[in-house]
Amino acid sequence: MAESPRPYTLVAELTYRCPLRCVYCSNPVDFARHGDGLDTEAWLRIFREAEELGVVQLNLTGGEPLLRRDLERLVEAARGLDLYTNLITSGIPLTRERLAGLKARGLDNVQVSIQDVTAAASDRIAGLTSFDRKLEVARWVKELGLPLTLNTVLHRENLDRLGEVVALAESLAADRLELANTQYLGWALVNRAALLPTREQLDRAREVARAARARLRGQMEVLFVTPDYYAEFPKSCMDGWGRRFIVVAPDGLVLPCHAAHTLPGLSFDNANDRSLAEIWESSAAFGAFRGEAWMPEPCRSCDRREIDYGGCRCQAFQLTGNAAATDPVCPLSPDHGLVTDARRAALAPASGPLQYRVADPTRR
Amino acid sequence: MTTISLDTRPRLAAKARLRWDRKDERFMLLYPERGLVLNPTAADVVKLCTGELTVGAIVDQLASRYASQPREAVEREVLDFLTRMAERGLVTGADA
Fold first, then answer.
1. Are B1 and B87 spatial neighbours (Cβ–Cβ below 8 Å)?
2. Under 8 Å CB-to-CB from B85, ≥6 apart: which residues?
3. Average pLDDT per block of 10 residues along chain A, 364 residues long
4. ∠ at Cα A288 (A286, A294), nearest 5°?
5. How many CB pairs under 8 A join A and B?
6. How remote is the C-alpha of B52 from its chain's centroid?
7. Contacts with A220 from chain B: Cβ below 8 Å
8. What secondary structure letter does DSSP report for B4?
């Protein structure tokens, strides 16, 4: 058997709890079934084991990682392991003092999410009055001398204001602006009819982002992530299954991506039971979609199979019911009509009320 | 964007951190969600990007350390590397 690839990034989902209720939350729709199953000591062991495996990047995320009272200890230990430690947060709830304490313990970067450029629009998507507090947090980040990533998730309600998003990021002196189009999985799939943009809208926004990237080169990194639904080919999801990323979910499940535990037929190991190395190197679930052996046609004989690794397994499952199918985003997929139908539907006015993230969704 | 000349005093950006990668025995420059693998010369340059030395002074130090290479070659390599780093926002600096 070939040697295992080296993981570079650990995504530590410290909790699925969150004060926000964003309509495109990337946590699984059944997030409430997964409680916080890892104590401080368990997380510290996971960080050590990850670093041993080769991980150099640590994303502390959730849910809202600030809800963990042991966040300070986790940051301190991560930095002690020389991991590049990135806090991915809504900024709620946070005080300036706590942020200063996190910086003192070695936090490397803070990523704050802003849902839109006005309080009304941003709070509507977040399902919580939070916009003004978020801006305040973003200002504290810079005042304390921490690097700031501003993250805005894009969809049909805010794509036309991308220029204003860029201006807001500039006014906050963000070091990095992550313009991440919604990917239509989980909660976002529930809300797809309300969120999926048209191609025209997306193309205009991409042009705004391209111009901003050129103008701000060297000052602010501007990242624009295309929604899979309008991509020419599937993305190499997570850089390939079990290739570069380890995700640990709040209950301790060790996953190749943050939604993998929604796939049926795979049994994921818990970090409370086995070492990260064992799970990474020899668990059946991490092996399931590694490499090419699992691939169906048209992937198996495709020139791009080592570029996109067959695309996103969760998208394949959520759209076709088969996790081992070619990602329907691919024009070569026999299920590609599912994506083109959704694009066509987006030409009509947005439909359907927004379904906020709730513990017990009434999805119909 | 910082334009890199011999008089610039380059400083590593706040978001970037140099790390020795013991797994593959090399230096990596880490920044949000990314990492660059550095060759030994590039790592030496980054270590000198403290905001105190000019690019000229950095070239002097490296030229004496790598005595087998002509100074012009070292200078060209350092300027090229720092320009690429500045384009990525990983190095900033003021002119002397």
1. yes
2. B10, B46, B91
3. 85 97 96 95 98 98 98 98 98 98 98 97 96 98 98 97 98 98 96 96 98 97 97 95 97 97 95 97 96 95 95 97 97 97 94 87 50
4. 145
5. 60
6. 13
7. 89
8. P
ipTM exceeding 0.90, yes/no: yes
Nearest to A324 by CA among A295, A283, A303, A347: A295
Q: What percent of chain B has pLDDT over 90?
A: 89
Q: Quick check: A9 and A244 in contact, CB under 8 A?
A: yes
* B4 token code pair: 């890199």
Q: Tell me the C-alpha distance between A2 and A261, whole Å.
A: 25
Residues in Cβ contact with A361 at an 8 Å cutoff, skipping those fewer than 6 apart: A29, A190, A355
In the stretch 109-128 of chain A, residues with CB closer than 8 A to chain B read 109, 111
Residue B83: closest C-alpha in chain A? A218
Closest to B42 in 3D by CA, of B21, B56, B26: B26
